[in-house]
Structures are given as C-alpha cells and as structure tokens.
Here is the input.
Amino acid sequence: MGAGHGHGAAQSGGSAAGRHKGSLKWALALTGTFLVVEVIGGLWTGSLALLADAAHMATDVGGLFMALVAVRFAERPATAQMTFGYVRTEVFSALINAVVLLVVTVFVLREAYQRIFEPTEILGIPMLAVAVAGLVVNLISMRMLHAGSKESLNLKGAYFEVLADMLGSVGVILAALVIMLTGWTIADPIIGAAIGLFIVPRTWILLKGAMRILMEGAPPHVDTGLLRARLAGIEGVAGVHDLHAWTLTSGLDAMSCHLVVKDASRSRDVLVAAQAAMREDFGITHCTIQIEDAAFRATEGATHD
Here is the structure.
C-alpha cells in the first residue's frame, strides 16, 4: 500500500520563481539597458572599478535571463519521460550563475593586481555620474527581486548578483570621490578588487545550495533523524526504513519511506497520521509512503535498509 499526490508547486500555480516572473522581466530590462551605459562609461573614464561593476552587471543580465528561461521551463507540464516536469531547471540556472560570478571575480582580481603597479588615468566626474545612476538602477532591481529571493533559489541567485552590483556601485562612488579629492588613482583597482571579493562568500552559499539539491541531499531545515523518530513514534508503526528526503526545487521538498505496521488492518490510520506529521512538523507535502507488514519486510533486500 502506498500514497502519493500531485507535485506541489509544479501543479498548483507554478514554481516559487514563476510567481515573480513579472519582477524578473522588469529587473532584466532595467539592468540590460544600464549595462550598455556602464560599459561605455568604464571605457571612457578608464575606471577598472566601473568596468568591474559592469562585469558584475553583465552577469546580472545573464543571470536574470537564465532565471526567466528557467521559469519558462519549470512551467512546462510533466511528461511520461519527465515525470517531475522541468522544475529543477532553476537549480541549474543558480549553479551556472554562481560559477560565472566566481570566474568574473578571478578576472577582476587579476586586472586589479596589474593596475596597482601600472596606474592609469581616471576621469573622476564622469565615473561618479555613471556610478550614481548604476546605484539607482540596482536599488530598484533589488526591490523588485527581494520577495522572490526568499522563496526561490533561482531568484536568490539573481538577487545576490544585483546586491553585489549595488555594493559595487557604492564602491565605485567612493573610488571616484577619492580620485576627485586626492588624485590617488590606485583607489580604483583597490575598490575594484574589493567588489570582486565581497560576493565570494555569498556565491559560495548559492553554489552549495544548488549542489545540495542536485546531489539530492536532505533539505537544510529537515533533520532526518528527527523525521525518522517522528514516524517511528506513530501508533501502530513497528519500523521505518528506506527513508529519503530531498528537494526537487525551491519550495518543493519530498520524502519517501517504508513503514512496517504491527496490524495491517490499521494501515490507513498509520498512513493518514504519517502524512499529517510530515506536513505539520516538517513542511513536506509531497510524500510517498509504502505500508507493509513484518512478513513483507523480511522479503526485502539490504538495499531497502
């Protein structure tokens, strides 16, 4: 005897990222438009900090675009071969975003090292103007993405990229002011390197989150020891085995297990209690639970331990 049901977010109004698709579109339009301005400004002023910020903004554009593509794929219905649909596309998008950010950081640090020993002329006033405009654009984009970043790993990746770019804009403003007031142009590569380094810890968190899902690790908020104990404590349960808990995509956790019952006639009561425990105590609504008696358990091999 087993139990299962629909695929949560995949069949009840779309994924967490899908609910914020409009915000993604607006953020992409704003960021993409200003990227062109910032690249031109960086080349004109000779500022590495501004170009580093433009590089981050380029990853913002790519990340937002991939996030939208992931949402579109996630909205596709399940098929006979893709039984969960394409909801995990957003995880691949988040993984790619994290890798791209790390690559960009390496490039910026390399360029900053060279410019510290070979300073270049910087145009402070135009640099400041472009940076202030970039800060405004990033603040607007962050506002649009903030709510979705709490629900979706995909949007969290996009939000982190915009956050990094916003802080980069602040750094560029500081560098421009230092150059304008003191003429100390080395402030530019130093700030550029700081922009690159700031996002590394957050990118690492994003990368680990994506890898955890792809490796089908237990959700961070689920203690599988407590989960097993909760199931074992249900009246009528004699044993719990073949227990698995994983995340399909952001906001959609799943679990499966085998429950050995003392009295097969009470299987339905045990099943109802187990489903309720998973939903109320662990927030897991997609459960597949096999109910079996001791005789059937004895026929199963070691792979079901």
The first helix runs from residue 21 to 45. DSSP finds ten helices and three strands in the chain. The first strand starts at residue 237 and ends at 249. The beta strands are 237-249, 252-261, 286-292.
